[in-house]
Amino acid sequence: MNPMPRRLLLLGAPSVALAALALTGCASTDGLGHGESAPSVSMQPQPEAVWPAWAGKTSRAPGAEASTRQPPPQPLKGLETGSGGLASLDVHAILRADPRTKPLADRGMIDRPGEAGIRPPMFLDLTGDKKPDLVVAADTESGRTVVAVYTERGGKIYPILFTSGRSMSVETIGPDLLVRTPCSEGGEQAVRFHWDGARMSTVSDIKNYKRAPRPSATADQRPSPSDSPSPWGP
User: Domain residues of the chain, as ranges?
Assistant: First the structure.
């Protein structure tokens, strides 16, 4: 190989590296060019408790019938909304019209944790249509909680989420619903539901397990001088 071209090639390598750094924006340590202003910080949504009084009571994974492989939800039979939307209907009537929640429909209303009954209904826009959807939770004597979500379209009511579990904690994170439950093995499971155009479907299912602390070495566990072998033999 001719020495001159090789020398030119070696000299050109740093120039190529500098050009790549300039193109990727790595030339400045803070990522800003001269005279540029810092971009605004985008705040990430934080979980907010749907029922604050029940927050923090987070056994078994919640079972959810939310999958895009299922047929689209059908409207509840014999029940329609008027101009007042979902808020104008009795929550007991809605639960009674849904076959999955009908056994819980005649329970009384409760306003504090530790009792069996139906929690105050909550109205949140989970579908992004600027109209409030209905979130209902019923607590049973066994400590199990059933959560159902309903939306309204064209005067008809559609069930878009049904999930249940023990010691459930229900939160919103942006437009999504976050359900936390303690795991039987320790730790916590967090299932996030997002509106997919037909129902609230699972977009993440994360389990966090608690690590057992390592046993600390004590004086009793350390070998005594008599237990240590002598370098001179027995």
Answer: 48-208
- Cα-trace Rg, the chain: 30
Query: What six digits make up the tokens of 125?
Result: 């826009």
Neighbour tally for 167: CB within 10 Å: 16
Chain centroid, CA 152 distance in Å: 24
Q: Is 152 exposed, middle or buried (0-12, 13-18, 19+ CB in 10 A)?
A: buried
What DSSP string runs through 47-66?
Answer: -EESSGGGTT----PPEE--
Both tokens of residue 184? Answer: 């039987």
In angstroms, the CA 94 to CA 101 distance is 9
CA dihedral 210, 213, 214, 219 (to 10 degrees): -170
Structure tokens at 212: 């057992």
In angstroms, the CA 180 to CA 4 distance is: 68
204-211 own/partner pairs: CB under 8 Å, 24+ apart: 205/61, 207/183, 209/183, 209/185, 210/186
For 84-128, the pLDDT digits (tens) are 899 999 999 999 999 999 999 999 999 999 999 999 999 999 999
pTM confidence score: 0.64
